[in-house]
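testing teh design pipeline on a random one, pls ignore if ur not involved
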C-alpha cells in the first residue's frame, strides 16, 4: 500500500452521530477495501481547536485531526473582491456577464458529474480533497479554459466539492434571503394542502433567473437519483446535502458559542432539507412547480 498523508477534507455532518471511514487501496484492477471503522461524534468536540483521534480500521490504524467549523462560518457568503471573479459574486451578475441564464461553472460541473460520477457511490456526500477543491476554485477565478481541463483530471468528489462551495459562497442563497422566513413559515403549516399551495406560491415569487437555475439543478439531481441503485443517493440524501446551502437565513451574530450555533441551527437544517425535498420530490414525480398545479 502507498498511503497518502496530510490531506484535508471538509465534511458536512448535519444531524450525524457517527463518522464511518472506509480505507481503499487503488490497484490496476480497481479499488480494494482494506479496512473500515467508525468514530462516534461528540458535542465536546465543538471547539475551534484541532483534536487528534485514532480510529481502528481492522488491521490498520488511522490518526486524524478534527476541527469543528460552525455552519455560520462554513456557509458564510463573502462578496468577491475580484472584478472578474465567479465565487462570491451575485448569480445575476455572473449570468449577465456571461450572457447566459445558467452560470458556466454550474453547467461545467454538472456535465462532468453526469459524465463520470452519476454511478459513484455517495456522489455529493463524499468529500473531495481540499487541495484539489481549492485548485479548481482558483482556476475558475482566473482561467476557465484551464478549469475545464482540470475538471476532467481531478477526482469527481473534488468536482462536487467545488460545486457545493460555489453555491455556499453565493452572496445570497438561490431561494433568497428575503424569502427564507416565508418558506420556513409555510413549511410549518400543518394542513398539507395549504402547505403545498404556499410553498409553490413562494417559489413562483422568486426572481425568474433564480427559478430557472433551481429548476436546472433539480433536473440534474433527479437524474442522479435515477441511479440510486448504484450511487445510493436517495431524494432525501440529496435534499439533506443541498437544502442547507440553497435555503439560508440572514447571518446570525458571530459572537454566539459553537454549541449555541448548533442548537439554533438544528431546526433550520431540518426545515431547509425538508423544504428542498418537497420541490425535489415533486419535480421527480413530473409535477409542475406552480401553485395552480397541485396534482
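output:
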Amino acid at each position: 500500500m502507498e498511503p497518502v498523508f496530510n490531506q484535508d477534507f471538509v465534511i458536512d455532518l448535519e444531524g450525524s452521530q457517527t463518522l464511518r471511514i472506509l480505507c481503499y487501496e487503488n490497484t490496476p484492477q480497481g479499488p480494494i477495501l482494506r479496512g473500515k471503522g467508525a468514530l462516534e461524534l461528540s458535542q465536546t468536540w465543538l471547539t475551534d481547536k484541532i483534536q487528534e483521534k485514532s480510529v481502528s480500521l481492522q488491521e490498520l490504524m488511522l490518526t486524524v485531526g478534527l476541527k469543528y467549523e460552525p455552519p455560520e462560518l462554513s456557509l458564510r457568503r463573502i462578496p468577491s473582491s475580484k472584478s472578474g471573479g465567479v465565487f462570491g459574486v451575485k448569480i445575476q451578475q455572473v449570468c449577465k456577464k456571461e450572457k447566459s441564464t445558467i452560470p458556466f461553472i454550474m453547467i461545467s460541473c454538472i456535465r462532468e458529474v453526469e459524465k463520470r460520477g452519476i454511478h459513484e457511490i455517495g456522489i455529493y456526500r463524499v468529500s473531495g480533497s481540499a487541495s484539489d477543491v481549492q485548485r479548481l476554485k482558483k482556476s475558475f477565478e482566473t482561467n476557465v479554459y484551464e478549469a475545464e481541463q482540470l475538471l476532467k483530471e481531478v477526482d469527481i468528489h473534488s468536482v462536487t466539492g467545488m460545486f457545493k462551495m460555489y453555491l455556499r459562497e453565493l452572496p445570497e442563497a438561490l431561494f433568497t434571503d428575503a424569502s427564507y422566513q416565508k418558506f420556513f413559515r409555510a413549511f410549518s403549516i400543518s394542513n398539507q394542502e395549504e402547505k403545498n399551495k404556499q410553498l409553490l406560491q413562494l417559489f413562483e415569487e422568486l426572481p425568474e433567473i433564480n427559478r430557472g437555475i433551481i429548476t436546472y439543478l433539480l433536473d440534474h439531481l433527479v437524474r442522479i437519483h435515477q441511479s440510486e441503485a448504484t450511487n445510493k443517493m436517495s431524494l432525501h440524501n440529496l435534499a439533506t446535502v443541498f437544502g442547507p446551502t440553497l435555503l439560508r437565513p440572514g447571518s446570525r451574530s458571530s459572537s454566539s458559542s459553537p454549541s449555541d450555533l448548533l442548537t439554533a441551527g438544528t431546526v433550520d437544517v431540518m426545515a431547509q432539507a425538508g423544504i428542498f425535498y418537497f420541490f425535489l420530490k415533486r419535480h421527480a414525480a413530473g409535477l409542475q412547480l406552480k401553485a395552480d398545479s397541485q396534482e
